[in-house]
Design brief:
InterPro entries: DRMBL, RibonucZ/Hydroxyglut_hydro. Its main location: nucleus. Keywords: DNA damage, DNA recombination, DNA repair, Endonuclease, Exonuclease, Hydrolase, Nuclease, Nucleus. The protein has five helices and 13 strands. The protein is an alpha/beta fold and 198 residues long. The protein folds into two domains: 5-66, no CATH class; 78-186, Rossmann fold (3-Layer(aba) Sandwich), CATH 3.40.50.12650. It has a five-stranded parallel β-sheet with strand order 9-8-10-7-13. It is elongated. The termini are far apart. 14% of the residues are buried.
Length: 198
């Protein structure tokens, strides 16, 4: 039996291009989330989840997400995480020009929010290996650089952890003007909250 179904893609906030699927048909409305990261109140501002002045009647929600598990009882908001990292990076980089931060980001995408906000707040561009992957995200291009002589790095190497053990950055930088660097490694990952917090 054929049925017309309307499928709407809604921003999931997980990484650039990530979406949730809203299926609407004669048999009801279903929301499939996939991995998502929405700020408080963000869903309320999504016009496509509303019909007139009220929220659409959704019969089923499929939460296909890493964190649909009781051990992830509390995950701080993206803003709380950003403020914590910002405070840490600011206090470290203000010690001297030779105090640098390495953001040990395991995925290729999904950290753009962090890079943009650190750059805006501290006036320091974030070093990445290549700009190619960000070409379709013009809003971030002002905040990243391929120049290794910056205090915030998100450069990557196949064996990042091995590089860090030698107190050098994955891009190979170990000193500036003959002065050794002091490297602080930050691993931005939500997984910690399942392991460390009940």
């Amino acid at each position: 039996q054929k049925e017309d179904i309307e499928v709407t893609l809604l921003p999931a906030g997980h990484c650039p291009g990530s979406v949730m699927f809203l299926f609407e048909g004669e048999n009801g409305t279903v929301l499939y989330t996939g991995d998502f990261r929405l700020a408080k109140g963000e869903a309320a501002r999504m016009e496509l989840l509303h019909s007139g002045s009220r929220v659409k009647d959704i019969q089923s929600v499929y939460l296909d997400t890493t964190f649909c598990d009781p051990k992830f009882y509390h995950i701080p908001s993206r803003e709380e995480c950003l403020n914590g990292i910002l405070e840490l990076v600011r206090s470290w980089t203000s010690l001297s020009h030779y105090h640098v931060v390495w953001l040990n980001c395991k995925a290729a995408y999904g950290y753009e929010y962090l890079f943009i906000n650190l750059s805006e707040e501290l006036g320091i561009k974030v070093h990445v290996n290549k700009l190619d992957m960000f070409r379709n995200m013009p809003e971030i291009l002002y905040h990243i650089t391929t120049d290794r002589h910056t205090q915030i790095h998100a450069c990557r190497h196949p064996r990042d952890d091995d590089c860090f053990r030698g107190n050098r950055l994955p891009c190979g930088l170990t000193c500036q003007n003959g002065t050794p660097l002091h490297v602080l490694s930050i691993k931005p990952s939500t997984m910690w909250f399942g392991e460390r917090i009940k």
